[in-house]
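User: Before I run my own analysis I want an independent prediction to cross-check against. Here's the chain; please return only the C-alpha coordinates and, at the end, one sentence I can use as a sanity check.
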Amino acid sequence: LGYSEALGHIDFYPNGGPDQPGCPLTIFSGLQYFKCDHQRSVLLFMASLKQSCNITAYPCDSYRSYRKGQCTSCEAFWPMPCPSLGYYAHKWKSYLTQQSHPVTSMFFDTADKDPFCIYHYFVDIVTWNKGTRRGTFSIVLADEAGRKAESKVNQEAAAFQQYNQITLLIGFDQDFENVERISLTFSTGSVIGPKFKLRILQMRFRSLTNPER
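Assistant: C-alpha coordinates:
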Protein backbone atom coordinates (compact mmCIF):
# COMPACT_ATOMS: atom_id res chain seq x y z
CA LEU A 1 0.00 0.00 0.00
CA GLY A 2 1.00 3.65 -0.08
CA TYR A 3 2.18 5.96 2.69
CA SER A 4 2.28 9.73 2.27
CA GLU A 5 4.95 10.64 4.84
CA ALA A 6 8.65 10.50 3.96
CA LEU A 7 10.27 7.31 5.33
CA GLY A 8 13.44 6.59 3.39
CA HIS A 9 16.63 8.25 2.23
CA ILE A 10 14.75 8.94 -1.00
CA ASP A 11 10.95 8.97 -1.22
CA PHE A 12 9.51 8.88 -4.73
CA TYR A 13 6.12 10.47 -5.41
CA PRO A 14 5.02 9.66 -8.97
CA ASN A 15 2.45 12.15 -10.25
CA GLY A 16 2.28 13.59 -6.73
CA GLY A 17 1.52 10.24 -5.09
CA PRO A 18 -2.20 9.40 -4.74
CA ASP A 19 -3.69 9.22 -8.24
CA GLN A 20 -1.94 7.64 -11.19
CA PRO A 21 -2.70 8.34 -14.88
CA GLY A 22 -4.64 5.59 -16.60
CA CYS A 23 -6.28 4.35 -13.39
CA PRO A 24 -10.09 4.41 -12.95
CA LEU A 25 -11.53 7.53 -11.35
CA THR A 26 -14.77 6.02 -9.99
CA ILE A 27 -15.76 3.04 -7.84
CA PHE A 28 -17.90 1.74 -10.71
CA SER A 29 -14.73 0.23 -12.20
CA GLY A 30 -14.80 -2.40 -9.45
CA LEU A 31 -11.67 -3.94 -7.95
CA GLN A 32 -9.41 -2.12 -10.39
CA TYR A 33 -10.43 1.19 -8.77
CA PHE A 34 -8.94 0.06 -5.44
CA LYS A 35 -5.75 -1.62 -6.65
CA CYS A 36 -4.62 0.20 -9.81
CA ASP A 37 -2.91 3.17 -8.10
CA HIS A 38 -1.16 0.91 -5.57
CA GLN A 39 0.04 -1.58 -8.17
CA ARG A 40 1.62 1.20 -10.21
CA SER A 41 4.60 1.29 -7.83
CA VAL A 42 5.41 -2.32 -8.75
CA LEU A 43 5.07 -1.62 -12.48
CA LEU A 44 7.27 1.47 -12.23
CA PHE A 45 9.96 -0.54 -10.45
CA MET A 46 9.79 -3.25 -13.13
CA ALA A 47 10.08 -0.59 -15.85
CA SER A 48 13.31 0.64 -14.25
CA LEU A 49 14.84 -2.82 -14.76
CA LYS A 50 14.29 -2.62 -18.50
CA GLN A 51 16.18 0.69 -18.71
CA SER A 52 14.34 1.53 -21.93
CA CYS A 53 14.38 5.05 -20.50
CA ASN A 54 15.48 6.49 -17.18
CA ILE A 55 12.71 8.09 -15.14
CA THR A 56 14.35 11.08 -13.45
CA ALA A 57 12.94 12.44 -10.18
CA TYR A 58 13.49 15.94 -8.79
CA PRO A 59 13.84 17.12 -5.16
CA CYS A 60 10.99 19.41 -4.14
CA ASP A 61 8.90 20.43 -1.13
CA SER A 62 5.60 19.68 -2.91
CA TYR A 63 4.15 18.31 -6.13
CA ARG A 64 2.48 21.65 -6.80
CA SER A 65 5.83 23.45 -6.75
CA TYR A 66 7.28 20.78 -9.03
CA ARG A 67 4.44 21.21 -11.55
CA LYS A 68 5.10 24.94 -11.60
CA GLY A 69 8.64 24.21 -12.77
CA GLN A 70 10.24 25.44 -9.54
CA CYS A 71 12.14 22.22 -8.75
CA THR A 72 14.05 21.05 -11.79
CA SER A 73 17.57 21.63 -10.52
CA CYS A 74 19.90 18.74 -9.68
CA GLU A 75 22.57 20.90 -8.00
CA ALA A 76 21.89 19.22 -4.64
CA PHE A 77 23.31 15.96 -6.03
CA TRP A 78 26.28 17.39 -7.93
CA PRO A 79 28.48 15.93 -9.37
CA MET A 80 25.84 13.22 -9.78
CA PRO A 81 22.63 13.82 -11.73
CA CYS A 82 19.20 13.68 -10.10
CA PRO A 83 18.22 10.18 -8.90
CA SER A 84 16.58 7.68 -11.20
CA LEU A 85 13.49 5.88 -10.00
CA GLY A 86 13.57 2.21 -9.07
CA TYR A 87 16.25 -0.42 -8.94
CA TYR A 88 19.21 1.87 -9.70
CA ALA A 89 18.35 4.40 -6.99
CA HIS A 90 20.91 2.65 -4.76
CA LYS A 91 23.66 4.50 -6.66
CA TRP A 92 22.76 7.58 -4.62
CA LYS A 93 22.83 5.79 -1.24
CA SER A 94 26.40 6.63 -0.24
CA TYR A 95 25.86 10.30 -1.08
CA LEU A 96 22.62 10.59 0.91
CA THR A 97 23.86 8.79 4.01
CA GLN A 98 26.68 11.36 4.31
CA GLN A 99 24.23 14.28 4.47
CA SER A 100 22.97 15.76 7.72
CA HIS A 101 19.38 15.71 6.35
CA PRO A 102 19.36 12.61 4.16
CA VAL A 103 15.58 12.29 3.64
CA THR A 104 14.67 13.68 0.26
CA SER A 105 11.20 13.81 -1.31
CA MET A 106 11.37 13.36 -5.06
CA PHE A 107 8.60 14.26 -7.52
CA PHE A 108 8.11 13.35 -11.17
CA ASP A 109 5.43 12.63 -13.77
CA THR A 110 4.79 9.43 -15.69
CA ALA A 111 2.76 8.34 -18.70
CA ASP A 112 -0.25 6.07 -18.24
CA LYS A 113 1.37 2.90 -19.62
CA ASP A 114 4.69 1.06 -19.84
CA PRO A 115 7.48 2.24 -20.07
CA PHE A 116 5.87 5.25 -18.30
CA CYS A 117 8.49 7.77 -19.48
CA ILE A 118 7.66 11.46 -19.78
CA TYR A 119 9.87 13.89 -21.70
CA HIS A 120 9.74 17.35 -20.18
CA TYR A 121 9.94 20.79 -21.69
CA PHE A 122 9.85 24.26 -20.23
CA VAL A 123 7.44 26.39 -22.24
CA ASP A 124 7.99 30.16 -22.03
CA ILE A 125 4.96 32.10 -23.27
CA VAL A 126 4.61 35.87 -23.72
CA THR A 127 1.12 37.14 -24.61
CA TRP A 128 -0.14 40.55 -25.74
CA ASN A 129 -3.82 40.55 -24.75
CA LYS A 130 -4.59 43.86 -23.04
CA GLY A 131 -6.68 42.14 -20.35
CA THR A 132 -5.56 39.26 -18.12
CA ARG A 133 -6.50 35.84 -19.49
CA ARG A 134 -6.89 32.88 -17.14
CA GLY A 135 -7.07 29.33 -18.35
CA THR A 136 -5.38 26.06 -19.17
CA PHE A 137 -4.06 24.75 -22.44
CA SER A 138 -2.89 21.66 -24.24
CA ILE A 139 0.04 21.49 -26.65
CA VAL A 140 0.56 19.07 -29.52
CA LEU A 141 3.99 18.47 -31.04
CA ALA A 142 4.48 16.93 -34.49
CA ASP A 143 7.70 15.73 -36.09
CA GLU A 144 8.80 15.35 -39.71
CA ALA A 145 7.32 11.85 -39.95
CA GLY A 146 3.88 13.09 -38.92
CA ARG A 147 3.97 11.54 -35.43
CA LYS A 148 2.13 13.54 -32.79
CA ALA A 149 2.35 13.83 -29.01
CA GLU A 150 -0.01 15.79 -26.78
CA SER A 151 1.05 17.36 -23.52
CA LYS A 152 -0.24 16.51 -20.08
CA VAL A 153 -2.46 19.49 -19.45
CA ASN A 154 -1.75 21.44 -16.28
CA GLN A 155 -5.12 21.55 -14.53
CA GLU A 156 -4.20 24.65 -12.54
CA ALA A 157 -5.18 27.76 -14.48
CA ALA A 158 -2.39 30.23 -15.27
CA ALA A 159 -2.84 34.01 -15.46
CA PHE A 160 -1.53 35.48 -18.73
CA GLN A 161 -0.83 39.22 -18.60
CA GLN A 162 0.37 41.49 -21.39
CA TYR A 163 4.12 41.18 -22.06
CA ASN A 164 4.63 39.03 -18.93
CA GLN A 165 6.48 35.77 -19.48
CA ILE A 166 4.83 32.65 -18.06
CA THR A 167 6.99 29.52 -17.71
CA LEU A 168 5.29 26.14 -17.36
CA LEU A 169 6.50 22.55 -17.17
CA ILE A 170 4.96 20.41 -19.92
CA GLY A 171 5.38 16.65 -20.38
CA PHE A 172 5.06 14.41 -23.46
CA ASP A 173 5.07 10.62 -23.64
CA GLN A 174 7.22 10.66 -26.80
CA ASP A 175 10.59 12.24 -27.53
CA PHE A 176 10.88 14.13 -30.80
CA GLU A 177 14.36 15.18 -31.85
CA ASN A 178 13.13 17.34 -34.71
CA VAL A 179 9.89 19.18 -33.96
CA GLU A 180 8.25 20.45 -37.15
CA ARG A 181 4.98 21.84 -35.84
CA ILE A 182 3.54 23.06 -32.53
CA SER A 183 -0.15 23.70 -31.90
CA LEU A 184 -1.68 25.14 -28.76
CA THR A 185 -5.31 25.06 -27.57
CA PHE A 186 -6.33 27.51 -24.84
CA SER A 187 -9.40 27.01 -22.64
CA THR A 188 -10.94 29.21 -19.97
CA GLY A 189 -12.85 26.17 -18.68
CA SER A 190 -16.09 28.14 -18.74
CA VAL A 191 -19.12 26.59 -20.45
CA ILE A 192 -21.02 29.87 -20.46
CA GLY A 193 -19.76 33.42 -20.75
CA PRO A 194 -17.53 35.24 -23.25
CA LYS A 195 -15.05 33.38 -25.44
CA PHE A 196 -11.46 34.60 -25.26
CA LYS A 197 -8.50 34.12 -27.54
CA LEU A 198 -4.97 33.98 -26.23
CA ARG A 199 -2.79 36.15 -28.45
CA ILE A 200 0.75 34.81 -28.32
CA LEU A 201 3.64 37.15 -28.98
CA GLN A 202 6.42 34.62 -28.33
CA MET A 203 6.68 30.95 -27.36
CA ARG A 204 9.90 29.08 -26.61
CA PHE A 205 10.49 25.40 -25.86
CA ARG A 206 13.43 24.21 -23.75
CA SER A 207 13.99 20.49 -23.31
CA LEU A 208 14.61 19.48 -19.71
CA THR A 209 15.30 15.87 -20.69
CA ASN A 210 17.79 16.89 -23.40
CA PRO A 211 18.99 20.42 -22.50
CA GLU A 212 21.60 20.46 -25.28
CA ARG A 213 18.84 20.74 -27.90
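Sanity check: The mean pLDDT is 84.
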